[in-house]
Design goal:
38 strands, Elongation Factor Tu (Ef-tu), domain 3, 8-stranded antiparallel sheet, 9 helices
Length: 646
């Protein structure tokens, strides 16, 4: 077979020369392949993908290498909480084909907002169907030629779309959903820290991919960083992201349809039944509690509650009444899960799906629309998979179809930040951990989608573009490239300037805008969980101190361990011996902190080691004490200017 002549140029972006110490980041991410907590040095996202398959760590690596040209010490962690599909909506599908989503064996592997739209319709398995896919909520799309296939495995995120027999109609948005990302846990972090300590590599910081769920988890991570200091004599800090406010919770609404072309027989038999001539209601996904509708028979004008389901027979609830008929050809039967509003218990109970998976939380303000008697706004007091409990006295008894009613919820920005502030109050005086709040959209160099990614990522990327003492929030460096707005220009993400500065006040690393531009998102502040009065509350100061500790650790070991200094009569070291020790350590501190290593000036203002003069070094297991005086560079936070008008 002849081949059409062609030429192809591909770009494989990789980091420059290997880095260590202040130039190297360690990224910890849950992965489905080689999740062995072993640190490996990579120069490209492509190489990480080859080793670990897809993860959000691959997405961060692509951004990191693209923007800093530095490699990554990547640690693949076991998945503790699998990512899941939620907030599904198939109500826009007017064809007879039913679409379903299934995550891979390890769950969904990356946070995304999926949209499927039909470009060229037709009959599944027969016509050459074209669909349009978006994983960033419709901000960008990719066309997929489904052809005559009945399933499509979405690249990277590990979600497969299945298309049941039937038709798709051009222009329909047939399926929308949210996919969450997997999470690691304290067991994985402990293993990662231990493995990192066994290697002879220093890192400036650790970035954990995947939201932290609670204050206890954040404390567990901080404890590992502290152990890295006290047990392993290494000094770093770590970044994590707390739970996000978006996307807002929404009850999934998945239509179920009878597939094939069987005839239907309707029996008025108390209980009434609907019998199909072929196929299977079970395989089509119908379950007890569903509310079904019929088209193409004399039983068209009502909805019916299903009591039991067999392959060929739907048995209806006792109160339902059918007109005896059939067998009737060319009927269509579809249905949704049932929604039950209870006055006595003030609960909304669903017969399928999960309130928790769909994102509902205690304290949410939920809005019900499309019901006969319960439209309105309510406050959630308890949540389980099937039950949403509301404040007392809110509801009226009613049974409804999940296809007719919408239930949505969400926190205001202020309520979300207040909840985070309360939740993480206990994570205090922990200067080695940074908690990021909020997200912004940024285009992935790896998958090309405009994904929502944490503020911590933006701060980390900016951090490695500069030396350790340079703030990530220096305004003159310009915006981060993250976007806080939707496609209509509405501010949807947390903006610490527009939203009142509560994020920085609570010591979260957030994104912000500037009122007079330039346009774009900036890092508001990059903050540790140290107390407000501590100079270590800024991550750049924490990092300079880490450098001082690491340099001093090595220099002190070289200058003192195993040395046999000359002593005075009282057992103290002679002044010349102490001067030698001080000189060696001061030389190391000066080289690392007081010289212009990267063209951005000294990292500190002053650094000097002073040895104690009264230590008795003539005893067994003698100990030498000393003090390092470190003066960091100043950081301008607030500027007050007087404009004099004459």
């Amino acid at each position: 077979m002849a081949t059409l002549p062609s030429a192809t140029i591909t770009v494989d972006a990789a980091a420059t020369a290997q880095a260590s110490g202040t130039e190297l980041i360690s990224v910890w991410a849950p992965v489905k392949t080689s999740a062995d907590s072993t640190p490996r040095l990579f120069g490209s996202a492509k190489a990480i993908y080859a080793q670990h398959d897809y993860s959000e760590g691959v997405e961060y690596a692509a951004l990191h290498v693209d923007r800093t040209r530095k490699p990554i010490l990547f640690v693949g962690l076991p998945i503790a909480t699998a990512g899941a599909v939620s907030r599904e909506d198939t109500s826009g599908n007017t064809g007879t084909c039913v679409t379903t989503l299934a995550a891979g064996g390890s769950g969904v592997m990356g946070e995304h907002d999926g949209v499927l739209t039909v470009v060229t319709g037709g009959t599944i398995g027969t016509d050459n169907i074209v669909i349009e896919l978006s994983l960033d909520g419709g901000r960008s799309t990719q066309r997929v030629r489904l052809g005559t296939a009945s399933s499509y495995a979405i690249p990277y995120v590990d979600v497969t779309v299945s298309f049941a027999a039937g038709t798709l109609v051009a222009g329909d948005t047939i399926h929308t959903w949210h996919g969450s990302a997997p999470k690691s846990d304290s067991t994985g972090w402990a293993a990662a820290r231990a493995a990192l300590a066994l290697q002879q590599r220093q890192v400036r910081s650790v970035l954990v991919c995947g939201d932290v769920s609670s204050a206890s988890d954040a404390t567990a991570f901080a404890n590992q960083l502290n152990t890295y200091e006290t047990t392993n004599y290494r000094f770093t800090f770590g970044r994590m992201s707390v739970r996000d406010r978006l996307p807002l919770a929404a009850m999934s609404a998945n239509v179920k349809r009878m597939t094939g072309s069987p005839s239907l027989t309707f029996a008025d038999a108390n209980p009434d039944t609907i019998t199909r001539s072929a196929g299977s209601f079970v395989s089509d996904g119908f379950v007890a509690g569903d509310i079904v509708t019929v088209a193409g028979s004399s039983n068209n004008d009502d909805t019916y509650v299903v009591q039991t389901v067999a392959a060929l027979v739907l048995t209806l609830a006792a109160a339902e009444t059918l007109t005896a008929e059939g067998p009737v050809a060319s009927c269509a039967l579809s249905g949704y899960a049932q929604l039950d509003f209870e006055d006595d218990d003030d609960k909304i109970t669903r017969s399928a799906g999960s309130w928790t998976t769909d994102g509902f939380r205690v304290g949410d303000e939920v809005t019900v629309a499309g019901s006969a008697s319960n439209d309105g706004t309510y406050t959630v007091t308890a949540v389980s998979a099937t039950e949403l409990t509301l404040e007392t006295g809110d509801l009226a008894d009613e049974t409804a179809s999940m296809g007719d009613v919408t239930v949505t919820a969400g926190e205001t920005k202020a309520a979300w930040m207040a909840a985070l502030t309360s939740m993480f109050t206990s994570v205090d005086a922990k200067s080695r951990v940074d908690l990021g709040a909020g997200r912004g959209r940024v285009q992935s160099p790896f998958s090309l989608w405009f994904f929502r990614r944490p503020a911590s990522w933006a701060a980390s990327l900016r951090e490695y573009q500069h030396d350790v003492h340079v703030t990530t929030w220096r305004k003159s460096d310009g915006p981060t490239g993250f976007d806080l707005f939707d496609t209509d220009g509405n501010l949807v993400e947390w903006d610490d300037f527009a939203d009142g500065g509560a994020g920085s006040a609570a010591r979260f690393t957030t994104l912000r805008s500037w009122p007079n531009g330039p346009q774009g998102a900036f890092v508001a502040r990059s903050l540790t969980r140290a107390a407000d009065a501590s100079v270590l509350v800024d991550t750049h100061v924490r990092t300079v101190v880490n450098v001082a500790q690491q340099v001093a650790q090595e220099a002190v070991e070289n200058a003192t361990i195993g040395q046999t200094p000359l002593l005075n009569e009282d057992g103290t070291a002679t002044s010349s011996e102490l001067s030698r020790i001080e000189g060696e350590i001061d030389d190391a501190l000066e080289q690392s902190l007081l010289t212009n290593l990267r063209g951005e000036g000294p990292r500190a203002s002053f650094a000097k080691f002073t040895a104690a003069t009264d230590d008795d070094l003539s005893v067994v297991d003698a100990a030498l004490n000393g003090t390092i005086t470190l003066v960091t560079r100043g950081t301008i936070v607030t500027v007050n200017v007087v404009l004099k008008v004459n």
